[in-house]
């Protein structure tokens, strides 16, 4: 026999209705985009070059005429940019477009030379009393750099006919000399430096206070 239905103690109660914001089906979150390895490597190069120039993303985007959001997606490896876009970015960074495609992780190397452990380079003739100590050597990259610690021995004589390809940076560590570059002669004391095109005749014209030591760094492009 069926049980009698009991009257509700709340006869005026209405069925509970949840708000639509709760009952509405929500789409699943978008899965993160898959980044291709070439796009990731390219983006890393763009970002590294931008940071090296101390430009913000907005500054570079404005300079090269692309949107900030596009530049951000390129740097994160989410977009494969067109050649035209890459050319604009290269122009904004003032680098050749080929810089973006250098395989830097496999080409970089590192050189650490402890004090007094450089390689002595023998000099003959008029500069045999100029003691050259090579402070490092790298095999990778397109730029060849030769850093030397140069010490003038007591019998060293002035020599003004150095001439070779590349750029030279010279930093006087101790002593006093007069240095000739082409038709110019400058007096150097400890802490002074020079940067010049080494294809012009150059060298120490006069030796003053001894001992004389200086850093000489030559930069040339690899052939």
Number of domains: 2
CATH top level label of the largest domain: Mainly Beta
Predict the CATH topology of the largest domain.
Jelly Rolls
Question: Would you identify the CATH architecture of the largest domain?
Answer: Sandwich
Series of secondary-structure elements, N-terminal to C-terminal: HHHHHHEEEEEEEEEE
Annotation, overall tally of beta strands? 10
Strand order of the largest sheet: 1-2-3-10-5-8
| Helix/sheet category | alpha+beta
Specify the biggest β-sheet: 6 strands, antiparallel
Report the end-to-end length measured between terminal Cα atoms: 105 Å
Q: Provide the gyration radius in Å.
A: 34 Å
Helix content: 10-25%
Query: How confident is the prediction overall: mean pLDDT?
Result: 82
Q: Tell me the overall shape.
A: elongated
The helix count comes to: 6
- Give the name of the CATH superfamily of the largest domain: Jelly Rolls
Report the portion of residues in β strands: 25-35%
Poorly predicted runs: none
